[in-house]
Amino acid sequence: MGTENSAKEAAREARMPRTERGKRTRRKLLNAAQAEFGERGFAETSISGITRRANVALGSFYTYFESKESIFRDLVRDMSEQVRVEVSKGVDPEAQSFGIEQSALAAFLRFVKANKAIYRIIDEAEFVDPESYRLHYKSTAARILGRLKAGSESGVFRDDLEEAHAWAVMGMNVFLGLRYAVWDEDGDDPDRVSAIARSLLEHGLARR
């Protein structure tokens, strides 16, 4: 398995563009893939549909990706990175502990509202590419755990927090995202929803 993963990574690196023009073309393909996979699902999406939407020649696709599976795998990685960046940008630099978790969740909800396809794409990754599916959640949980540990060190959070606590927080965030960003039936304000989540965390994570 390790050798196979190394081979996939080597093939991916070999296709990474070195020029700005190449980077723009690859970005267009990823954006088109996000729209196609989000609308049609993996099985119904075609490479030709992706290239048409991206307005890129079909032959150019293979300059950057080996197959439909490879662009899907890279898209999952790309969307996971988008979440990381947007949440990081959305966190109030002056906030501490509970304020960080509240602003991180609000930023996540706003991102999902604008990119609802992420739930369908990540869910399909469980079956199309389980490795990227697990990596998405493991890396997200690791970031949350880092924040929780920092809160413990500052004396605000309990001092017994561990990985399971991070997964519990992530699970809450994922389902709040599904209800209040993907379904978004009532147009709820992300700040209001994240404030409710914060009140829940304050009773479960605060140091007594």
What can you tell me about this protein's structure?
The structure is a single chain. It contains 10 helices and no strands. It is mostly helical and 208 residues long. 80% of the residues lie in helices and 0% in strands.
What topology does this entry show?
Blueprint: H1 2-14, H2 20-44, H3 47-54, H4 58-64, H5 68-90, H6 98-114, H7 117-128, H8 130-153, H9 163-183, H10 190-205
Helix pairs in contact: 2-3, 2-5, 2-7, 5-6, 5-7, 5-8, 6-9, 6-10, 7-8, 8-9, 9-10
Short summary:
By secondary structure, this protein is mainly α.
Strand element count: 0
Q: What structural category characterises the helix and strand content?
A: mainly alpha
Number of helices, where a helix is a run of at least 4 consecutive DSSP H or I residues = 10
Mean pLDDT figure: 92
Note the overall shape: elongated
Strand % is: under 5%
Rg result: 19 Å
Order of helices and strands: HHHHHHHHHH
Distance between the termini: 46 Å
Measured as a percent range, the helix fraction is over 70%
Uncertain ranges: none
> Biggest sheet, open or closed, and with what strands and sense?
none
Features:
single chain; 208 residues; mainly alpha; 10 helices; 80% helix
